[in-house]
Write a structure and sequence with these properties.
nine-stranded mixed β-sheet; 14 helices; alpha/beta; TIM Barrel; binds zinc ion; binds N-(aminocarbonyl)-beta-alanine
Length: 455
């Protein structure tokens, strides 16, 4: 064996049991009790949990947005991922008017490939159908291994918004080729109306970011999207769900049999909209904004009871000087926050304190994203799968600070948050990439994940 991890508490999406894992040629080769085999590297995981690597299904690395580019590129973003136990990152690549899906994906792949420290996949954002030609390319995209497309109901002035007809066409074509449609759901017209009114009234602090996009603005769009997906029976993945009303409508539709999947993010589980009243409120500006306590509680309930399918980060950090552009005008704050390194530690700490189970954390952060998005080699401690493995010490206490994170962002909304339990080792396809607070991987080691269609 290349690697033998012994005596750990192995976590699958259904159970926890004591066992050993043998790794050969980047794959899980054996799982058993007391494997007594020679191995090049033997790890004693006594007293530790051993889990499948996290999959962050939602990131924006090196993303041109908000008048700048997000602060983590493919190297620093995937380095931070590795140090938080994330072994596969899904990045959003943006198709622009006149451009095709494959040329868009391949251009990003050329940037990502030499830098990626963990494995990576792409969702393709659709901004324009090029008179319908783009839809004709969906099959080729699926054959290439990109099996998810994303629409925005917002970001009109950024040229990213699509109308309902475009969204419906994407839903239908994606279903036809065995792909899935992801959606950012908020109502752009109501946001624009609220923003214009607040600016007229001189209400310009970060708090008005929240008030211009409160609960019902997201809920309307969630419900509209659920209506379309249900009506045409096409798979829909709602990203970064943050509000109670929309969540409950989506969960109800899902439980009634509609092909709907729901993602939320740690920032919506941890904070409330009160952060926007803080002097550093602009650092928390993301869209949709973080909502009130009732929404936060509803999200946690759905995380625990299966209503929510995945937790991902929407990692899209901007430097302090960029966030400062909006000190006196919330509309100038680039939208997005860091989180890629905090996802798995945060959700596993919730398991460690008994808020959810360890298998549930594995479902949300690994098994479900692998299944929903067709990563057939990922998301599970099973013989034959990629040896993407995290060793987790339930006793290790870490207080998050920008100084002990591995992103290029110069601040973090998670500053000062203490977690009991933390990953101590991360392996990507059997290779150690993180150990005890240090990145030990290699840029360029990460590989493109060719995904399978859903039929
Ligand atoms: O504020 C956010 N979420 N920024 C990234 C783009 C998006 O909407 O996902
Ligand atoms: Zn979004
Ligand atoms: Zn996003």
């Amino acid at each position: 064996m290349d690697l033998l991890i012994r005596n750990g508490m192995l976590v699958t999406e259904t159970e926890v049991f004591r066992g050993d894992i043998g790794v050969q040629n980047g794959k899980i080769a054996l799982i058993g009790a007391s494997l007594d085999l020679p191995a090049a590297r033997v790890v004693d995981a006594g007293g530790k949990y051993v889990l499948p690597g996290g999959i962050d299904a939602h990131t924006h690395l090196a993303m041109p947005f908000g008048g700048t580019v997000s602060a983590d590129g493919y190297l620093s973003g995937t380095r931070a991922a590795a140090c938080g136990g994330v072994t596969t990152v899904f990045d959003y690549t943006m198709q622009r008017k006149g451009k095709g899906v494959l040329e868009t994906v391949e251009a990003r792949r050329a940037l990502c490939d030499p830098e990626a420290c963990v494995d990576y996949a792409f969702h393709c954002i659709v901004t324009d159908l090029n008179g319908g030609a783009l839809l004709d390319e969906f099959q080729a995209s699926v054959d290439y291994g990109v099996t998810s497309f994303k629409c925005f109901f917002v970001y009109k002035k950024e040229g990213m918004m699509v109308d309902d007809a475009t969204f419906l066409k994407v839903l239908l074509k994606a279903r036809e080729v065995g792909a899935i449609t992801n959606l950012h759901a908020e109502n752009p017209d109501v946001i624009d109306m609220n923003v214009a009114q607040f600016l007229r009234e001189g209400k310009t602090s970060a708090w008005y970011h929240y008030l211009s996009r409160p609960e019902f603005v997201e809920a309307e769009a969630d419900k509209r999207a659920v209506h379309w997906a249900k009506s045409v029976d096409a798979p829909l993945y709602i990203v970064h769900m943050a509000d109670q009303e929309g969540l409950e409508a989506a969960v109800a539709a899902k439980r009634a049999g509609a092909p709907i999947f729901i993602e939320t993010c740690p920032q919506y589980l941890e904070f409330t909209c009160d952060v926007y009243k803080r002097p550093d409120g602009r650092n928390f500006v993301c869209s949709p904004p973080i909502k009130g306590e009732e929404s936060r509680a509803a999200l946690w309930k759905a995380v625990a009871d299966g209503g929510i399918d995945t937790v991902a980060t929407d990692h899209c950090p901007f430097q302090s000087y960029e966030k400062d552009w909006g000190k006196d005008d919330f509309t100038r704050i680039p939208n997005g926050c860091a989180g890629i390194e905090n996802l798995y530690p945060y959700m596993l700490a919730a398991a460690n304190e008994g808020k959810i189970t360890f298998p549930r954390a594995v479902q949300l952060c690994s098994a479900n994203p692998a299944r929903i998005f067709g990563c057939t080699e990922k998301g599970s401690l099973t013989v034959g799968k990629d040896a993407d493995i995290v060793v987790y010490d339930p006793e290790k206490v870490v207080t998050i600070s920008v100084g002990n994170m591995h992103s290029d962002s110069d601040h973090t909304i998670w500053e000062g948050k203490t977690l009991k339990g933390y990953p101590v080792e991360t392996y990507v396809r059997g290779k150690l990439v993180y150990r005890d607070g240090q990145f030990v991987g290699e840029p360029g080691y990460g590989r493109f994940v060719k995904r399978a269609p859903s039929k």
